[in-house]
Structures are given as structure tokens and as C-alpha cells.
Specification:
AB_hydrolase_fold, hydrolase activity, hydrolase, Rossmann fold, 229 residues, 7 helices, FrsA_esterase
Length: 229
């Protein structure tokens, strides 16, 4: 099971991932004795600077889970996306980048033994679904207010247990997530947070997301769960 709340050894580490022609950056937390790594990505690729992703990452780290909050766009690409909003909807690009990061962690001596989960927000959730469909190393997926519908043809190919968390006062995403639930063939659940809108800014809403996320990864990323599933 996960380490107790307040697990030690989870200091923030800045990581760079060098690929052919570009570099991605992320923030890594590795609590002592962790058995898993949750990779967190956001809509515009700017998960590295997204406060809600860091909130979730800090919660997971306090519960003994390794986390990597990673950008899927370079700094130049992020500036362009801030002006145009185009790249955040380029799901093939984001999914390719996330797949590269997953593969990079599998080659890293410090990370390769950890079981991998994915956490995606907004269109980052679609990238997570596509990457999960491609990679047998992904053990679980969580979407927060995610456009999982944009994963389209990849959805029936996802084998990793998938949790979608959506605000009750976010009707469009709730409808789209319900459609995704009908398309998925894996173990899956749709959780609706009462009184929450798309960004979960309401008091206690993001804490509910963190709790649901932590419970899902505890259930599907640890040895005991893997042996009984």
C-alpha cells in the first residue's frame, strides 16, 4: 500500500527530457519507497506551471506516490499556444510527446521499476487516453474535467482502469464524459463532484478531485491491487 500521509523523501526535482529536436521539462517528486509514478499533464502542455496539477501532485506525493508534472510543449510552443490556442487541441502531437516521456521514464534507472499512471486535465486527458491505448506499461488513468472524447478511436483500445472526474456544474464535459464511458471497454468509473465547475475552483472541489484520484491510483498501481485484479 501507499506510504502514510507526510511521506518523506518527496523533495521537488527539476527534470529535463531531451528528444530529437526539442526538450521537455517537468517537476518530479519521489517519496522514499514509492512503488509508482503518476505522470500529470494539462491541456496546453503547460502542466509544469499549472497550479491545479501541482496541487494534485503534492497530494499524491504526501500519500507516498511518485509524481511527474510535465510539459508536453516547449516554451516556444507554449507561447504560440497562448496566442492561438491551437496546439492544445493537437491531440496527436500531445499524445506523441506523452508517449516519449513514458518511454523515457522506462529507460531511467531511477524510474523504470515504478508502475505508471497517467493524470490528464482538459485536452491533456485525451492525450493520456491515447498514450494509455498505445502503452502496456500504463496501469491506470485519471481525467480531471477532461476532453476524453477527443481520444476518439483510441478509447476502445484502452486497457488501463480509467476514472473520469467532472464537475456537476460543467454540463458539456459531463455529457462528453458520459459518452466516453459508453465507449470504453476497460474497468472505468465516472465521478461527479457536486457544485463544481470546469476548473474546480469552488471550496473543497479540488480536494475532492485529489481524494478520488489518490484512491483510484492506490487501487490500481500497487502490488496488492495488481495481484487481486
Amino acid at each position: 500500500m501507499a506510504s502514510p500521509v507526510g511521506a518523506s523523501g518527496s523533495e521537488l526535482q527539476y527534470r529535463k527530457f531531451n528528444f530529437a529536436g526539442f526538450e521537455l521539462a517537468g517537476d518530479l517528486r519521489l517519496p522514499q519507497g514509492t512503488e509508482c509514478l503518476v505522470i500529470l499533464v494539462h491541456a496546453s502542455g503547460g502542466g509544469h506551471s499549472n497550479p491545479r496539477n501541482h496541487y494534485i501532485a503534492e497530494y499524491l506525493a504526501r500519500h507516498g506516490m511518485g509524481t511527474l508534472v510535465v510539459d508536453l510543449l516547449t516554451r516556444t510552443e507554449q507561447r504560440w499556444d497562448n496566442l492561438t490556442g491551437v496546439l492544445r487541441f493537437d491531440i496527436p502531437l500531445l499524445a506523441d510527446r506523452l508517449t516519449l516521456v513514458i518511454n523515457a521514464t522506462a529507460r531511467d534507472a531511477e524510474l523504470r521499476k515504478l508502475r505508471v499512471g497517467l493524470f490528464g486535465a482538459s485536452t491533456g486527458a485525451a492525450a493520456a487516453m491515447v498514450a494509455a491505448a498505445r502503452s502496456s506499461t500504463v496501469r491506470a488513468v485519471v481525467s480531471r474535467g477532461g476532453r476524453t472524447d477527443l481520444a476518439a478511436q483510441a478509447l476502445p483500445l484502452v486497457n488501463a482502469p480509467t476514472l473520469q472526474v467532472v464537475g456537476a456544474d460543467d454540463p458539456m464535459i459531463l455529457r462528453l464524459n458520459a459518452q466516453t464511458s459508453q465507449t470504453l471497454h476497460c474497468t472505468q468509473r465516472l465521478e461527479v463532484v457536486k457544485g463544481a465547475t470546469h476548473l474546480f475552483k469552488e471550496p473543497g472541489a479540488l480536494a475532492d478531485v485529489a481524494r478520488l484520484t489518490g484512491n483510484w491510483f492506490e487501487q490500481y498501481l500497487y502490488k496488492e491491487a495488481a495481484c487481486t485484479s
